[in-house]
Amino acid sequence: MATQDFLVELGTEELPPKALKPLSDAFTQGIAKGLEDAGVEFGKVEAFAAPRRLAVRIRDLADAQPDKAVEKRGPAVKAAFDDSGNPTRALTGFATSLGITPDQLDTMETDKGAWVVYRTVEQGKPTVELLPELVDKSLAALPIPKRMRWGAHRTEFVRPVHWLIMLFGNKVIDTPIMNLTPGNTTRGHRFHCPKELIVPTPGDYEVVLKEEGCVLADFAERREQIRRGVTELAEKEAGGKAVISDDLLDEVTALNEWPVPLMGRFEERFLDVPAEALISSMEEHQKYFHVVAADGEMLPLFITVANIESKDPAQVISGNEKVIRPRLADAAFFYDTDRKSRLEDRIDALKPIVFQDKLGSIYDKSVRVAALAKKIADAIDSDPALAERAAMLAKTDLVTEMVLEFTDLQGIMGQYYAANDGEHEDVAKALNEQYMPRFAGDDLPSTLTGCAVAIADRIDSLVGLFGINQPPSGTRDPFGLRRASLGVLRIIIERELPLDLQTLCEWAEENFTVLTEQNTASTVVDYMLERFRAHYDEQGISAEVYLAVHARRPTRPLDFDRRVKAVEAFRQLPEAQALAGANKRVSNILTKQGGDSIGETVDSSLLQDPAEQTLAEQVNAQADKVVPLFEQGDYASALSSLASLRAPVDTFFDEVMVMADDEAVRNNRLALLNRLRNLFLRVADISLLPTAG
C-alpha cells in the first residue's frame, strides 16, 4: 500500500504557556489513536508546539484503510429452507437486509449446527476521507477547562484560531475545520517574519519555519536551545551557574518562538533580602532565571529569554532591569517592615482568619496543633516546649506583608523572621519544615521539632474535617487531606518515628469540642492506612502484599512498612506460593469449624500420624525461634524462617485427614493448624498472596 507523510497545523493567538505542552501531547495522542482505531497503518508520530501553533506530522501514513473481510451470520440452515428446499421468509429477509439475493449466501458448520452466512470484503476508505473528522475530534477532545468564542462565529477553542494546514503528501485536504479552510501556508514570527510561508510537503515544515520564518516549531529543540543558551550565558558572562527549574524552563519555552537569552543586573543591596523572595519575584512574575556563584550564593544577575533577536539588545536588557527593580524594591520594603514586629506579636492577628467555619480560626487551629505537637515531641524524644512554641508561631507569617504579596513563601519567611526574633534554631526551622513534604518526593523535616509540628498540623486537619463529616469525595479534596495523609506516613516511616496513628488521632480528637461524627479517630486511621496502597504501588509492590498486611491493621506506620517489606521479600521465596495456598486452605477449614472459638493448644498425646507429629515439632521449634523476632519487629527474618515449614505442611495435607472421626483427634489437628496460621498472622494474612496453580 502506498504511503505519504501527513501534516496538520492549527495557527492560533498566543496559547496559555502552562497549557501548551499538555495541549500538544493530547492533540498528538488523539490523532494517533484515531488512526489506530481506524486501522490505518502509519510510522513515526512527531509533535510540534509553539506559542501560536499546534502541529502533528505522521510519517509513512497509508493512503487507505486495509480491506476487511466481513462475515455476517444469518438463520440456521434448518430454519432457512422449508421441506421442499425453498428459502423461508427468515432467509429472504436476511438477504434483503444485506441488499443481496439468497444464492449469494454461504453456509458454515459449527458445533451447534449449520448456519447461513454472508461473506464479503469491505473495501477500506481512503485516508484523506478519514483525516478531517479525525482531526476535528482530536481538537474537540483537548483538555481545555474553559473555551472561548470570537467574532461572529460559534467556533470555540482555548484561543482564537487563524489558519490551518492539512497536507497529505503535497496535496491539500481542503475540508473545513473550525470554520477554517485548510491550505499549505503557515505564518512566521510575529515580528521577524510577519507573512505567510508556503509549506510544500510535510517534511519541509520545521525547515521552512526555521530558515524563513524565524520560528523553532519543535518544543523539545527549543527547550534544549534555551537551556543551553542560558547555561552558557551564565558561565561566560558571570562565571556562575544559572538555576534552571524544569517548570520554569517549560513555561519559558512555551512563551518563545525564537528564543534569545539576555543577562541583566540588579542592585547588590537587594541581596540582603532572603534569596527565596528574590527568586519568587524573578521566576513567578517575570519568568527570569537567577544566577548563583560556585559556592551557591546568589549573584545580582538574572537571565531573561527574549522572543526577538534585537539589533540593540542593550535596550531590551535595560527594559527588563527597569521592570524588575520595583518588584525587588517591594520585596526589600516588605522584608524590612516585617522585621519590625516579632512573630509572637502577630499571634492574635490569626483570630479573625477562618480555617473552616465549624473548626474555627487559624488561631484556634494553632492552639490545637501546639497541644498535639507537644505530645508528639514527648513521644519521639524531642523537646515538647520547642514543639509547642513552634506550633503557636507556625502560621504567624501568613499575616506578614511579604507572604501576603508572595504566598508561595509561607513557612520560608517564617523561618527567617523567627531567626531574626532570636527564636531557638529548631523552632525557626520548624516554621518552614511544617509544610514538608510539600509534594511527592519532596524533602522531609530535618529536625524532630519540625517533624512534630508537621505531623500535628496534618493530623489536626484530618481529624477535624472527618469529625464534621467533611472528608474528601471523588476528585474533591479542598484541604489536601490525601496529600496530608501521605506526608504523615512518609515522615513517620522515613524518619523512623515510634508513633501510632490511632494514638495520634485520639490525642487530636481530645482537642475538639465540635466534632459530630462517631469513632472519628478510627475512621481517620482507616483512611490513612488506605493511602498506603498508592504509596507501595509507586514502589512496585503488589496490591496483594499491601492487602495481606492491611488485613492485620497494624496502626504504627513504621511497623506497617516493615511488615510490607518482609512480606514482599517472602513473596520472592520459592516456598511462598505453596505456603500461601496452605494458609488459605487452613483459613477455610478453621472458618467452617468455628473460627475464633478454636484454640491453639496442641496435646502431643493425640498426635497419631507421623506427618502431624513432624509438623507439630516443626511448628513448636519455629515458634521458639520466631516469636522473639516478632517482638523485635524483625519480620523479614521471621518469615524467612517460617518458609521452612513448607515441606512438613505439604506432607501433612497429603497424608493426614484433618476431619478425623474421633472428635478429640479432630480438634487437636484443628488446634495445630490454628497454631500454624497464627504464627504467620503475627506479620500478615499471607493467604491473600498469589497461590500456586
Automatic annotation (TrEMBL):
<dbReference type="Pfam" id="PF02092">
    <property type="entry name" value="tRNA_synt_2f"/>
</dbReference>
<keyword id="KW-0547">Nucleotide-binding</keyword>
<dbReference type="GO" id="GO:0004814">
    <property type="term" value="F:arginine-tRNA ligase activity"/>
</dbReference>
<dbReference type="InterPro" id="IPR006194">
    <property type="entry name" value="Gly-tRNA-synth_heterodimer"/>
</dbReference>
<keyword id="KW-0648">Protein biosynthesis</keyword>
<comment type="subunit">
    <text>Tetramer of two alpha and two beta subunits.</text>
</comment>
<keyword id="KW-0067">ATP-binding</keyword>
<keyword id="KW-0963">Cytoplasm</keyword>
<dbReference type="GO" id="GO:0004820">
    <property type="term" value="F:glycine-tRNA ligase activity"/>
</dbReference>
<dbReference type="InterPro" id="IPR008909">
    <property type="entry name" value="DALR_anticod-bd"/>
</dbReference>
<keyword id="KW-0030">Aminoacyl-tRNA synthetase</keyword>
<dbReference type="GO" id="GO:0005524">
    <property type="term" value="F:ATP binding"/>
</dbReference>
<dbReference type="GO" id="GO:0006426">
    <property type="term" value="P:glycyl-tRNA aminoacylation"/>
</dbReference>
<dbReference type="GO" id="GO:0005829">
    <property type="term" value="C:cytosol"/>
</dbReference>
<dbReference type="Pfam" id="PF05746">
    <property type="entry name" value="DALR_1"/>
</dbReference>
<feature type="domain" description="DALR anticodon binding">
    <location>
        <begin position="585"/>
        <end position="686"/>
    </location>
</feature>
<comment type="similarity">
    <text>Belongs to the class-II aminoacyl-tRNA synthetase family.</text>
</comment>
<dbReference type="InterPro" id="IPR015944">
    <property type="entry name" value="Gly-tRNA-synth_bsu"/>
</dbReference>
<protein>
    <recommendedName>
        <fullName>Glycine--tRNA ligase beta subunit</fullName>
        <ecNumber>6.1.1.14</ecNumber>
    </recommendedName>
</protein>
<keyword id="KW-0436">Ligase</keyword>
<dbReference type="GO" id="GO:0006420">
    <property type="term" value="P:arginyl-tRNA aminoacylation"/>
</dbReference>
